[in-house]
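Q: Could you fold this chain for me?
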Amino acid sequence: MVQSKLRLYDEAVQRSPFAAYAEAHGDGPIFWDEESQAYIVLGYDEIRAAAADPQTFSSITGRLLVKQAPWQDEVDAIFAEHGVLPTNTLVVADPPLHSFHRGLVDKAFTPSRVRKMEEYLRDVVNELVDEVIDRGEVEFCQELAVKIPTYIIADQLGIARSEYATFRRWSESVIRESDPANSRERQLEITRTICDLQRYIIDRANEYRKSPSDNMLSDLVRARDADGRALNDRELASMVLQILVAGNDTTTSAMSSGMYRLIKSPGLEDRLRADPALIGNFVEEILRHDAPIQGLWRRVTRDTVLGGTALREGDIVVLRFGAGNHDPDQFPDPGQIDPARRNARNHLAFGTGPHFCVGNQLARAELRNSFAIFLDRMRNFRLARGEDGVEFVTTYIAFGVQRLEMCFDRNDPA
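A: Sure. Below is the predicted structure, expressed as structure tokens.
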């Protein structure tokens, strides 16, 4: 059993894991991590192989959403009294249940709906850029990268923008809930906050059952499978919590990371501005290089071999998507941001296999339109206080820039 060199609980590694990935890749595709009591899968091919085999690598692990963890009885008691008990859906479900849920949520994230949203997405971005364009300085994360996807997903869930602060607190709690380093007090506090969100979702769903609206939550409420089965309240609440993370926090992280890489890569913003056709692939490169979700858990259901490592039934593995995106056998010179990289879209930032992110088209459209507008309306991006004005997320599974104090010049037409 090869011991992992990665220290995934180390905040310095969480803040910037790429050097650690590069070192670990030299020793093999899979390691045992004593600290997390799990096998860490780093190799691109091995991640794809495991993700494509849910019969052997189950998403029901007890480590995410529906958990088997310390203080779980206390957590479940809070859910039972103040909200609803979490249930396995989407990310934490296996076929055939996953197939049922995915079939319904796909009806709310159709390609045609996303295409129709393009002008709306640009309007949201331009509206928020209008608020900062005359200042020439902005804390990019909170004023743009957070607000853009938050406004969009709030609109799609029928949540008023006036409730932005509450909605953002709910969203942050969902992703913080998954951190295995949480203390008992922190976990119970997060659970109470998630209960508030659950009740809000169910109340809105009941309204849409009586009076449908043109948004994704209403579509989810009305969706039926071929047998006429709909989502119950527990399934709906669980699913929306996951959509919040997929459609909000992850897009925020990718947008902030993208702006940081623009600032730190001399000549890149001018290159993209001169050739806007590269913006879409630049977005893919950011998702590859700075995957907002660095990894997720799987549980081994039967003895097997992965990447030359023997695994036993009951073992926990972590599919480390961020490391797969830096596998030099798949992406030569993986630490380089190359907007012309031919296979950039093959990244694992949206997962792979049956659990490939249902909201990937919306996230890509948000990022592509946002960077096109930033580059069109602003120029000369630079840090306002050097690296002192930059802060990275430090959690076990999430990555990204969470504070970015920057300056810019207006890009007025000649």
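A (continued): The chain has a mean pLDDT of 89.
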